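step 4 of 6: structure.
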Amino acid sequence: QQQVKQSPQSLIVQKGGISIINCAYENTAFDYFPWYQQFPGKGPALLIAIRPDVSEKKEGRFTISFNKSAKQFSLHIMDSQPGDSATYFCAASGGRSEKLVFGKGTKLTVNP
Amino acid sequence: DTGVSQDPRHKITKRGQNVTFRCDPISEHNRLYWYRQTLGQGPEFLTYFQNEAQLEKSRLLSDRFSAERPKGSFSTLEIQRTEQGDSAMYLCASGGSGANVLTFGAGSRLTVL
């Protein structure tokens, strides 16, 4: 059973545009929601993370929006650049388990 | 280099052979995780260590898989009698106490022929 559902599977945007990736979770015990960025041949790298006590967190061009009642969170990449082209994973953890549960990923392509 | 190191980076083996992967976490991190990632999918949790204790195992970890972290530092993941379905990237991650942040290694890619 997939506990974190991510969409879209792939996304193409133009340079300077806004990229938006959405995730939904089921387990109400989750209390930590990170986004990871992965380039081909590399391991995932933490991009930004949020806890459910805030509705938004911004770091540079990256913003997480969090809706606790809807059990949804999203990543917004402002002014998208070709260097942002990568696969993005949302994840969640919390409750009795120490593990991070990942979404299936979104392959982002930013055209120059 | 203070990141998470994994070795080997790529392993090609024949079905039925045993393989072992090694992970060296960031030195001050007491938490260590193994994940498996197949093409086009997100990482799937396999197992978790806090220091030398293996505290959590996924149902994905069949009897052919075993992981150890004997002195609470490096860890090994062994797969016995490999099957073609074991072909994947095996990722190791580590984290410090009291923090959720995980740092991943570059992974060990297994190809079973």
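step 5 of 6: annotate
 - The interface with chain B takes residues 6, 32, 34, 36, 41-46, 49, 89, 91, 93, 97-105 of chain A (CB under 8 Å).
 - Chain A has no helices and eleven strands.
step 6 of 6: archive
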